[in-house]
Amino acid sequence: MTTSHRTALITGANKGIGKETARGLAALGITVLIGARDAERGEAAAEELRADGADVRFVTLDVTDETSVRAAAEHIDATFDRLDILVNNAAIAAGPRKPSETPAATVRQVYETNVFGVIAVTHAMLPLLRRSAAARIVNMSSELGSLTHLADPGSPWSAHSSILLPYCTSKSALNAITALYADELRAEGILVNAVSPGYCATDLNRHTGIRTPEEGAAVAVALATAGEDGPTGAFLAEDGPIPW
Ligand SMILES: NC(=O)c1ccc[n+]([C@@H]2O[C@H](COP(=O)([O-])OP(=O)(O)OC[C@H]3O[C@@H](n4cnc5c(N)ncnc54)[C@H](OP(=O)(O)O)[C@@H]3O)[C@@H](O)[C@H]2O)c1
């Protein structure tokens, strides 16, 4: 690897928006590591993207399993010596249920992936990202995490948010985490942003979304490859900032 060649890790990249983010980054000549908890699904996605002539590889990564996270970091260290781009994409949802009928255990389960998983992966990858000349962290968030929207019963997202407490609040937490990491890492030139892909047809929403996963991936690809004057500590959709 030359000093200018970039390597990206995307969590939960075996399908959906993560896979399309992988495709988009690989098309720019970036070596892409497909993080997936299931080897068969991860390898199949990597193979599909390699068919385009891209350098795409599978890495075992269950974001809720510290041993798996550590092993992925050790593998990247041994193979590439550094990491340039981390896209925290893996997420799950639970519901639909009213907030008052949502067990704490369900919220905890969603947070394990969507919140604690992001923190665990980010911590494990930070030493590798710090060796990059232009490290970027992109956290795949959602408009459903916007406190401005959640506090507005008339918001266009209220039909979804009113029955998805674990998912929505996990993305609110992710937004807060993004802001704090961005603040800490700003002086080191590591740009950290939260993005919203829009409502895309994927397994997460039983394909009810109105955008394609490829359209959803575009904002993540843009932020993952932003120049040194790019934003940090922002919450962005394709067409601009989203209210926190
Ligand atoms: N679709 C939308 O409209 C929409 C809107 C806003 C934000 N988002 C966000 O976009 C991101 C991608 O979602 P998507 O719609 O593409 O969903 P998806 O098709 O369900 O993909 C989710 C991915 O996360 C992986 N994953 C789940 N738990 C994991 C774990 N513990 N470790 C590693 N990987 C794990 C899944 O792997 P398996 O195949 O093994 O389950 C899958 O690859 C998520 O952060 C989501 O919140 C989506």
Automatic annotation (TrEMBL):
Protein name according to UniProt: Dehydrogenase
Keyword NADP: yes
UniProt KW keywords: NADP, Oxidoreductase
Domain of life: Bacteria
Similarity annotation: Belongs to the short-chain dehydrogenases/reductases (SDR) family.
GO MF annotation terms: oxidoreductase activity, acting on the CH-OH group of donors, NAD or NADP as acceptor
One family name in Pfam for this protein: adh_short
Membrane-traversing stretches: none
Signal sequence range: none
